[in-house]
Write the structure tokens for this entry.
Amino acid sequence: MLTLQTNLIRAGAFLALCFLITLSCDASASAFAAAEICAPGTAAAASSTAPPTVPTILPNIFDPHGPPARMIHDLSWLVLGICAGLFIVVEGMIFYGVIVYRRKKNDKSKDEPRQVYGSNPVEIAWTIIPLLIVFVLTLTTVRTIRSIELTKAPEGALNVVVIGHQWWWEFRYLDDSFLGGEVIVANELHVPINRPVWLRLESADVIHSWWVPALAGKMDVIPNHTNYTWFNAESEGLYLGQCAEYCGNQHAGMLLRVVASKPAEFDAWLQTQIAPAVNDASVAMGRDIFQEYACSNCHTVKGVSDGQFAPDLTHLMSRQTIASGVTPLDPTTLKAWIDNPQALKPGCNMPSLQLDPQELDAVTAYLLTLR
Ligand code: HEC
Ligand SMILES: [Cu+2]
């Protein structure tokens, strides 16, 4: 009996420890992720290229800013609350039993305590109560999943196709109301606040996962299979996220940025994206190099080249970062990137074209005009 009691105490202490470790790990993990992902954003904000006027919203599941994220958040607290309650009741009973019914000092009897077998009330209680708990958890989970996993676009939604690439994101805006037709951008998704955004998720290569924690839960991005998900940003902000499915060596360099702004600001942004590429005669040399070298095989600049393999560069300078949020976009990083992308993002799918210094300067000057 004594060993049983000691074991119970040990088990209890162990469980309590596990619980505490889990809690603290969660907290430090999200702090770590935040520091990691934020660094480029903060640096970008300090650089000259269009500083964000909106607050940065960290990838934190405890800070939801829209319906799917909030439903997941509320359900998590419910589950955590019920589990914590159970933990306290069960542990409480164990500790109570162990302390109150332990063998007293002067108790020399060799008899076991009175044993209770087959008590109907007890049997019924510990069947019914867990059943009710499981029932509540099942129903709330099913209800949450049903409201999150919609089968068709919500009323009035903005339609965007998300294409995962190793290791960057492509966004295609499909609404025909966009006069000029399709708008294609990379890595930074712009949306209006308080309007549902319906995402069609596709992959150009391997499995990725769409995850902007403050807006919605994860959704896999699978080759040859179309998934859908949605969100509705309720407040203005730059929402940070991350590919959430290991997809190769630069998986960690596949960051997500969603800029949610007032509808008027979103429309203004859309107009800049619909506009044709800037055609500045003073950088004609850089443009020629861009067209003659392989750049044009991989990249699209509307009216100049139509490569489909890599990010569309038509309005490159309207973005705050390059290489999927890995580094802020400014003249220095841009030049360094074109010179040798492998130094900034080792293993990425853009080779260094070994331009000589004049060519490098000319191409950089050209790209800097692509507002
Ligand atoms: C073999 C295809 C290929 C060629 C050739 C190529 N690129 Fe790229 N480029 C890529 C890929 C892939 C990326 C995305 C890398 C990533 O983020 O992982 C990229 C990214 C970029 C970016 C950053 C875009 C952004 O928004 O993140 C710039 C700028 C760029 N390339 C310019 C050039 C220039 C200039 C040349 C010619 C000197 C060139 N590229 C040649 C494939 C290519
Ligand atoms: Cu990925």
Remarks:
- The chain has two domains: 1-106+150-273, 281-368.
- The chain has nine helices and 15 strands.
- The chain has a mean pLDDT of 87.
